[in-house]
Specification:
This protein is an alpha/beta fold. It has helices at residues 28-35, 91-103, 113-120, 126-137, 141-151, 154-178, 186-207, 210-218, 232-240, 283-297, 322-325, 359-371, 386-407, 412-430, 436-443; strands spanning 6-9, 16-24, 36-37, 50-56, 62-71, 82-89, 107-108, 220-226, 258-264, 267-273, 301-307, 328-333, 349-350. The longest helix is centred in the middle third of the chain and has 25 residues, at 154-178. It is flat.
Length: 450
């Protein structure tokens, strides 16, 4: 409940140099004062300054020497009085610190409850709250940049601007319903349709970034495929920087897909090493080969590895459709050996998985393909997530319905209904409407203490 004082460990559980515990709520200073022993009472300490003292348990025994920082509401992360206690990072010390806070009346915070309170107290909108989790889970430089943009309110501001424009259109329609003698002239009707079209275009622009959001959060699915023994697993290990996949001269060693998350030039990639393509009577290996074909079909990026030291007509190439071909990079492996002349006209990147030669060129090719005309449109994408996408799709659909109703001279009450539905969907983006169920889903994904 919002009136409770909550406490939690905000750093990861385990041995470390320090641990940080947080208190937030109306009783934060009082509870901290029962645990902290310093030169002055906690209520008299200066906010936003570091104070040294001791933390004691319920019996008055010293748990640890700690640092205390006070953030008085509303100028705090949660908008409430908030206290941080920094202690040594032992598991037992940290747990005893938390136990002392709970003993004196704090409640253990739920997952994401500190950020949820920040949202409920108007410190951030819902898109910014989600960006906190995106920042925590960012696996790449681009994902981190996108999370920072969202945390700064880029998506929220755009949604609010659309909402204000939609309110003006709806107000005009509802004024006409209330005062029918004030007829809407053709010019006014055309102007309203133009404003609805502008809102539809803005929704479409945001919807176009949903694929960026998927890739930034989950990584561009990058399938490494080719014949057995051409160096697929070696390439995965080389890109990953460690021995992730088993490398063996025995054909058919890789029978199932192997995945590893990496970043290349700040781009998140989910590498998928697949079974080698060949004829096989082994049922397990054949199942792996079939899975390879499915992975190629749904890949964002395809790295087709070939052995450039053998004649090209002996290579069994991966069957790739015209759409997938634009997402393919041919990796001419074994460049440390003499290249067969039949590969001279093949457009690809010469690499040696044995020596690492050509790896920088391959990384550059991956960057260029993904960023320029590929899965990511730019280096600084504004990336909506799946929830935003659902909301903006509803906005677009309701605006289209309202537009059709206007053009069809349908009763203005129907137009107003569609516009109200669009307005509600926009409100859900930033949390301006009652979205208790949505809040429960979003904040349940946070770590305790955040």
């Amino acid at each position: 409940m919002i009136g409770d004082t909550i406490a939690a460990i905000s750093t990861a559980i385990g041995e470390a140099a320090i641990s940080v515990l947080r208190l937030s709520g109306p009783g934060a200073l009082e509870i901290a004062g029962k645990v902290f022993r310093g030169r002055k009472d906690v209520a008299q300490l200066r906010a936003r300054a570091v104070h040294l003292g001791a933390a004691v348990d319920a019996d008055g025994a010293v748990i640890d020497h700690v640092l205390l920082i006070i953030f008085r509401g509303p100028a705090s992360y949660t908008g409430e009085d908030l206290v941080e206690l920094h202690c040594h990072g032992g598991v037992l010390v940290t747990q005893k610190m938390l136990g002392a806070l709970l003993h004196h009346g704090a409640r253990h915070a739920d997952a994401g409850e500190f950020t949820q309170r920040a949202f409920l107290n108007g410190k951030m909108d819902l898109t910014q709250a989600e960006a906190v989790m995106d920042l925590i889970h960012a696996h790449s430089t681009l994902a981190m940049r996108a999370a920072h943009e969202q945390l700064e309110g880029v998506i929220g501001r755009e949604a609010e601007a659309m909402r204000e424009g939609l309110i003006q259109v709806l107000a005009h329609i509802e004024a006409y319903i209330d005062f029918p003698e004030e007829d809407i002239t053709p010019d006014t009707g055309e102007a309203m349709i133009a404003r609805i079209d502008d809102l539809r275009a803005r929704a479409a622009k945001l919807l176009a970034t949903s694929e960026n959001g998927r890739i930034l959060r989950s990584g561009a699915r990058t399938v490494i495929c080719g014949q057995p023994n051409v160096g697929k697993s070696s390439l995965l290990n080389l890109l990953a920087g460690f021995e992730r996949a088993i490398v063996s001269p025995v054909a058919g060693t890789t029978r199932d897909t192997i995945e590893e998350f990496i970043q290349v030039h700040g781009i998140p990639l989910r590498l998928v090493d697949t079974a080698g393509l060949r004829e096989s009577a082994d049922a397990i290996e054949q199942s792996g080969i079939e899975r390879t074909s499915r992975e190629v079909e749904r890949a964002d990026l395809i790295l087709e590895v070939v052995d450039a030291s053998v004649p090209r007509d002996l290579a069994r190439r991966v069957a790739i459709g015209s759409e997938s071909a634009a997402r393919r990079i041919v990796v001419l492996n074994k460049s440390d050996l003499v290249r067969d002349a039949s590969w001279d006209d093949e457009k690809g990147i010469a690499v040696s998985c044995a020596t690492g030669a050509g790896l920088d060129e391959l990384r550059a090719a991956i960057r260029d393909l993904v960023l320029h005309g590929g899965p990511l449109a730019s280096e600084h994408p504004v990336a909506i997530n799946a929830r935003h996408k659902s909301c903006f799709e509803r906005v677009a659909a309701q605006l289209e319905a309202a537009r059709s109703a206007l053009l069809g001279h349908i009763a203005p009450e129907f137009v107003a209904f569609e516009l109200r539905e669009a307005l509600e969907a926009l409100g859900e983006v930033t949390g301006r409407v009652d979205v208790e169920q949505i809040l429960d889903v979003i904040f349940s994904q946070f770590c305790i203490g955040k």
